[in-house]
Every structure is written in structure tokens, then in C-alpha cells.
Design brief:
It catalyses: ATP + protein L-histidine = ADP + protein N-phospho-L-histidine. This protein is an alpha/beta fold and 582 residues long. It contains 18 helices and 17 strands. It is globular, with a radius of gyration of 34 Å.
Length: 582
């Protein structure tokens, strides 16, 4: 009879359970385990090698204390022999590593608020107490401690010095130009010496101008980026001021609001001009051709400037026959708008006329005015940057002198022509000449009133506004609610979908293009449409004026409105979308 301690017929006993019964089976796992351990050790050694041999500094630290770990490159940047010496000497980052305690506090607060920061330029203190310029990319690690951060440090001393050198060279260049100009004025006494010296100075000026143009190319890129960032807060301020203008305010407050509105309008126009002239000078602006009902667009511009004419006490006539073109609607509208603005700026009495005429081989858009006129020898100068027809203090609202420069460049990009005739004291005529091959079949006719100031009734219109900027949401809501809309603000796609789950049925969607986490307004619009199983009329409002974004939105049949938003254009866009929703 089999004893209880005997093995069962299955061949599995307590030894198997403990892993002791079969030595050969147990050993079969050792090679795989050993191989995995070796792989892990190799991976560890590789990361350790990268950490120790990186060209840029890397460290882990506690913001309330000192370093937890750092690599040799970080020690070299700070002027120490090795990481151990750096960790031993610097026990308080705020007082011993950063040149500015206030700047450290600002970085620390930003990390606590947002969790990370990228490529932030600052100065660190070296072992010999001299500053070193660096760019910091920092990531907060709450899993390791409430104020533990990991940081990537790049030494940018050479770049900063090069930038300072460039500024110094620019200053020296400007000084040289001033000195040469003064020399030209002084040598007028002696005619022979004047001719000889002029040739010499002109040659030097050519070299100086070429050097200045080369230096300004890098400035143009910075200007474009900085202007784009400034458009966001200006947009929020503009919408809020527009909402205040629509409200009932005492006379004194209403006058101040109007003055703020004028100031913001001037700042917006200047920024828009700077952005466009920068892109045109870099040859980064390409025409986005589309079919355009020219009559409808010019009619809309005419309605826009009727208000300007009424405020200035001037007559304004516009005569536009039905005609359609294949052109860049935005650039052509900008050309005509700038010419009309220029005409009203320099016309004190009489009026302005906008007309379209067909010549034998071209179509002519003409702007006539009864303004101050232009002397014949100045007709070519008016298309240069920062040139103004009237000197400061002679009356009239002064601009920055970029409007006609933008017109001339855009006309050239489109392949059109521009001509100006003028009589001082009598007025001027600007003519934009469009070759007839740009004209399309008259059977095609756009049903929209592009660029028109449509005044619709928005009472009860449900508008879903998607923007990741709280200030923009608040100001947009204030403006639209003043027009009678029901506004539903959302900071992204998920917030908008949550509103839909609670029963929201929007009539119109207005979405910013750039949202948080690299999301876009297009994606948010499509998500809402999928959730509702309905193509809700939508438009994109953005400060991004790049040709790539405009081409993308045109391909997706989404209207675009650039920030800062002008209320009359927003009203026109909203009326068009509302008409589609009915």
C-alpha cells in the first residue's frame, strides 16, 4: 500500500513547489536572468557615461538647498574641478549659485506653478565669483520631493557676447553714418572738395548700409516673434474696451474709454504693419490665391470707411461694378484698406472716392482724394519705410510711415502695378493695376459679402468660444453678451465636450487655433461636430498670421479672423456664421 509521503502519479510534489526538486530545471532560469542583469548593467553604464561625458551641464537639486547630483560639465561651467567640489561648496542655490536672488525666486515660483520651464536665460556665479551666462531647461520632480528639480544647463556666454558685440557694432555704425552725414553738410563750402569727398563718403555709406541690412535680418525674425506674442494681450484688451463702448457709461468715463480704444487701435495697426513689413522683407509672404467677388469685398470696405468719413466730416463715394478675380483676398483687401486710410489721413476737406474701371489690358482700382497732395520729386519716396507725407505737428493723425511701403511690396508680390499722380494742394490718385488675365468668368459670383460689416440680430445666439487664454475668454464673453449672444466659454476640447454632455447645443463655434498641449482649434471644432453629428458653423480666431496656417484653414473650409479682433469684422463674421446655422 502507498504511503502518504510517497510521490503521486502526477510527478509534482512539495519539492517542485519550493523549487528544490529539480536542479536542472532551476538552473535553466539562471542564464536568462544573468543575461537580463547584464543588459540592465550595460544600460546603467551607458546612461552613466552619457551623464558624465555630456557637453552640457546636468544636475539634480533641491530648490530650498543645494545639489543632489551633478555631472562634470556642470562643474566646468561653474569653474570647479569636479562635481564633488561643486556640491560641497554650493549648499544654497539661491545665494551661492544664482547671481540674482530675485531671478531665482521668479524661476522657483514658475516651476511651482507650471512644473517646468524651457531655455530660460540667466546668470550663474562661478567659483571665482564671476558671472557665466547660461540657458536653463528645468523640470520639477514632485515624486522625489516637493522642490526637487532636474536641470539641463547650456553655456551661452559666446552667444551673449556675440549679441553684445552686434549691438556695439550697430551703435558704432549709426555713429559713423551720422559723422559722414555731418561731413557732407560741412564740405558744401568748397565745390571741388565737395565732389571728391562725396564720392568717398557715398562708397563708405554703401558698405555701411549693406552691413546694416545684414544685421537687421536677424532683428526682423525677433520682431516677428515679439509682435506675435504682443497681439494676444492686445486682443483681450481690445475686446474688453469694445464691450465697454457698447455699455452705458457716464460722459467722462465714455470719453476715457474712447481714448483708450484709439490708443489700442494705434498699437494694433503698428504691430500689424511691423509683422507684415518684416514678412515681406524676408520674402516669407506668398500669395494664397482664391476666387474673390471683388465688388462684394470693396463694398464691405466702403461700409467700413463710411464711419471714418462721417467722423471726419468728409464725403465718401464708392463706385464698384460687378467683377470677380483670382487673387489673394487678404492681401488685396490690405492694399485697398491702406490706400483708403492714407487718403482719409491727409484729407481735411472735400472727400474720397473708390472706383473700379476696366482699361484695355487691365483692371484699375482707383482711390481719389482732395487732400494735401504730393510734390513731384517726393512721389517715389512715399513708398519707403517710415516716410510720412506731412512732418509732425502739421495736423492730422500721424502713422508710422509703413502703410504705403506695405502696399508697394504686396502689389509686387501679387504681380500687379501701382501708380500715383498728384497735385499739391489739390489731391492725389492712387491706381492699382491688375492684369486682365487675373479676371475670372463673370458667371462665377460669390454669394458672400467678404469684408463687409454685416449687422445681424444675435439675440439668443448660442456661441461656443474655445480659447486657452482666460483673459480672452472673459473679454470675448463681455463683448458678445453685449450683442445679445449666449456665450459658453471653454478652455479646450474636453471642456467643450463636457458642456455638450450637459445639454449645450451651440449655434456657432469660435475657436482659437493654438490651444494647450499642442492641440488646435480645428481639432476641437471637429470633436464638437462629431459629438453633435452636425456641422455647426465655425471659425478660427488666431494671432498666427503665417501662410502655413492660412493655407491649412482654407483647405479645411474654416474662416479665419486674425487677432487682435476688430469688433466690426467679428460682427460680420458672426452674422455670416449665424446665417449658416439657420
Amino acid at each position: 500500500m502507498k504511503k502518504p509521503s510517497d510521490s503521486t502519479s502526477t510527478g509534482y510534489d512539495i519539492g517542485d513547489l519550493l523549487g528544490l526538486s529539480s536542479q536542472s530545471a532551476r538552473k535553466s532560469y539562471y542564464p536568462a536572468l544573468q543575461e537580463r542583469l547584464e543588459e540592465l548593467e550595460q544600460e546603467r553604464n551607458r546612461y552613466k557615461w552619457l551623464f558624465e561625458n555630456a557637453l552640457h551641464g546636468i544636475f539634480q537639486a533641491n530648490l530650498r538647498g543645494g545639489f543632489l547630483a551633478c555631472n562634470p560639465a556642470m562643474a566646468r561651467i561653474c569653474g570647479y574641478d569636479n562635481p564633488e567640489q561643486l556640491q560641497k561648496k554650493v549648499i544654497r542655490l539661491r545665494e551661492q549659485l544664482f547671481c540674482s536672488a530675485a531671478e531665482f525666486d521668479q524661476l522657483r515660483q514658475e516651476l511651482l506653478d507650471h512644473g517646468s520651464l524651457s531655455a530660460r536665460e540667466t546668470r550663474l556665479r562661478r567659483a571665482d565669483q564671476t558671472p557665466v551666462y547660461v540657458a536653463l531647461t528645468m523640470l520639477r520632480r514632485p515624486d522625489l520631493g516637493p522642490e526637487v528639480v532636474e536641470t539641463f544647463v547650456a553655456d551661452i556666454t559666446e552667444r551673449v557676447q556675440a549679441r553684445q558685440k552686434l549691438e556695439q557694432l550697430n551703435a558704432e555704425l549709426e555713429k559713423r553714418v551720422e559723422e559722414r552725414t555731418e561731413a557732407l553738410q560741412n564740405v558744401n563750402v568748397d565745390l571741388r572738395y565737395q565732389i571728391e569727398e562725396r564720392e568717398k563718403v557715398e562708397q563708405e555709406l554703401k558698405v555701411a548700409v549693406n552691413a546694416a541690412k545684414e544685421a537687421n535680418r536677424s532683428k526682423d525674425k525677433y520682431l516677428a516673434a515679439a509682435s506675435h506674442d504682443l497681439l494676444q494681450p492686445l486682443n483681450a484688451a481690445r475686446l474688453m474696451i469694445s464691450a465697454l463702448q457698447d455699455s452705458q457709461l457716464p460722459e467722462a468715463e465714455n470719453r476715457m474709454v474712447h481714448q483708450v480704444h484709439r490708443a489700442l487701435e494705434g498699437a494694433e495697426d503698428l504691430l500689424a504693419d511691423l509683422l507684415d513689413i518684416s514678412k515681406l522683407d524676408q520674402q516669407a509672404m506668398k500669395p494664397d490665391l482664391a476666387y474673390l467677388n471683388l465688388a462684394a469685398m470693396l463694398q464691405g470696405l466702403g461700409e467700413e470707411f463710411e464711419v471714418v468719413a462721417a467722423n471726419a466730416g468728409l464725403q465718401f463715394r464708392h463706385r464698384v461694378p460687378p467683377v470677380s478675380l483670382r487673387t489673394d483676398p487678404r492681401m488685396l483687401a490690405r492694399i485697398v484698406r491702406n490706400l483708403l486710410s492714407n487718403a482719409f489721413r491727409y484729407t481735411r476737406e472735400g472727400g474720397v472716392m473708390l472706383s473700379v474701371r476696366q482699361r484695355r489690358d487691365r483692371l484699375a482700382i482707383e482711390i481719389w482724394d482732395t487732400g494735401v497732395g504730393i510734390e513731384a520729386h517726393k512721389l517715389q519716396d512715399i513708398f519707403t519705410e517710415f516716410h510720412q507725407l506731412l512732418p509732425q505737428g502739421t495736423g492730422g493723425r500721424q502713422g508710422a510711415g509703413l502703410g504705403l511701403a506695405i502696399v508697394e511690396r504686396m502689389v509686387r508680390v501679387l504681380g500687379y502695378g501701382i501708380r500715383v499722380t498728384s497735385r499739391p494742394g489739390r489731391g492725389s490718385r492712387f491706381e492699382v493695376s491688375i492684369p486682365l488675365e487675373h479676371r475670372v468668368n463673370e458667371a462665377w459670383r460669390s454669394q458672400s459679402s467678404a469684408g463687409g460689416a454685416i449687422h445681424g440680430n444675435f439675440d439668443g445666439l448660442a456661441v461656443l468660444v474655445i480659447d486657452n487664454e482666460p483673459a480672452v475668454l472673459e473679454s470675448m464673453a463681455a463683448l458678445l453678451e453685449g450683442w445679445g449672444c449666449e456665450v459658453f466659454p471653454a478652455d479646450g476640447e474636453s471642456s467643450a465636450l463636457d458642456m455638450l454632455s450637459e445639454g449645450l447645443l451651440p449655434d456657432v463655434i469660435l475657436a482659437d487655433f493654438h490651444l494647450d498641449n499642442n492641440a488646435t482649434g480645428c481639432e476641437a471644432v471637429y470633436a464638437v461636430r462629431r459629438a453633435l453629428d452636425h456641422d455647426v458653423p465655425a471659425a478660427i480666431i488666431t494671432a498666427d498670421r503665417s501662410d502655413e496656417v492660412r493655407t491649412l484653414l482654407r483647405a479645411q473650409y474654416l474662416p479665419i479672423l486674425n487677432k487682435p479682433v476688430k469688433p466690426n469684422r467679428l460682427r460680420a463674421l458672426l452674422a455670416s456664421l449665424a446665417a449658416q446655422s439657420t
